[in-house]
Amino acid sequence: MRIYNKYLLTLALVMGAANSLLAFLGNNDLTNYFVVNIIICLGITLLFVHLNPRARTALNGINAVLFGGFAVIIALKIVEFLSGK
Amino acid sequence: MSAIIIGLISVALANTRPYISPEACDLILKTGMENTAALIEELGLRGKAVYLPSAMRDGRSQALIPLVDNRELNLARDKVPGRLVVRYGANPDDMAVAVSTPGSLNIDMLATKPGPTADDIEAAVTYVLTGLLDIASSVSVNMADSQVHIEVKGAKLRYEDIWFYRCLGSPIASIAAAISCEALGKPVRIKEEDYGQGKGRIVLEVLS
User: Fold this and answer.
1) Would strands B138-144 and B95-99 be described as parallel, antiparallel, or unpaired?
2) Which of B25, B42, B61, B175 gives a 20 to 30 Å CA spacing to B114?
3) Does the beta-carbon distance from B134 to A33 stay under 8 Å?
4) What is the ipTM of this complex?
5) Strands B199-206 and B147-153
6) Domains of chain B
7) Which among A30, A53, A66 has CB closest to B5?
8) By the CB < 8 Å criterion, does B24 face chain A?
9) Which long-range contacts (CB under 8 A, 24 or more apart) does A42-45 make?
10) A25-78 pLDDT per residue, tens
11) What is the number of structural domains in chain A?
């Protein structure tokens, strides 16, 4: 199995399991799903250190966008917490 | 959400595949190999090649095939001249043919020179074989008594009992040897190579 196949399969399995677990726990907030999926994506991408440089550059671009989304959610949560709503 | 993320990653990875088709790469590899094989066979070279680090060979790692077989390689020079037929020792018959191998060219693909430990060599060989070239699933490296033992799982390029491979080793062994000699800063020779049950075993002899 190629390293790309392993990477995508690992992502699909772990994200699927995490989403199922969140759904089983009765989580209805979409931001929680978003944050958990982003953390899984960033973590698994870090584990696949042997991907070639071109693939890594492309994945870094996607991860930067995802991390931006993650940062926005965290910032909104902090504002929400500080404003006491 | 996960489907969107996986979809984006799939598109990104698809765009990072090489521009040259695998068939073209195969053609270029076979052309180079056949030319080198013809040279080796024509000269009747039966000795095992010695892989030299780039520091000993004008900045590029290459393999020396001694013209006279069954003898210890006494490298009398610090740097072997950058020619096809080279003298490597003090004796008149210490002559060899220096050729580039698939492993020689892969050294340039490494971002940094690997260190002389088994872990560093393993990381570098794994990076090239699984990450860059995608011709093996995993690699493990052990060092003991001036020998480097390399186990390759899921190798896609197998050893064939042909003159070229007996002399220079298979492309996988050649890559492992070139990286090991560069990491150790010493010449190495492929001592043994065998494949079976999805595993390949390569033994490299480190020469002083």
Assistant:
1) unpaired
2) B25
3) no
4) 0.79
5) antiparallel
6) 29-99 (no CATH), 102-206 (3.30.70)
7) A66
8) no
9) A42/A66, A42/A67, A44/A7, A44/A10, A44/A11, A44/A14, A45/A7
10) 988 888 889 889 999 999 999 888 878 888 888 899 998 998 998 899 889 889
11) 1
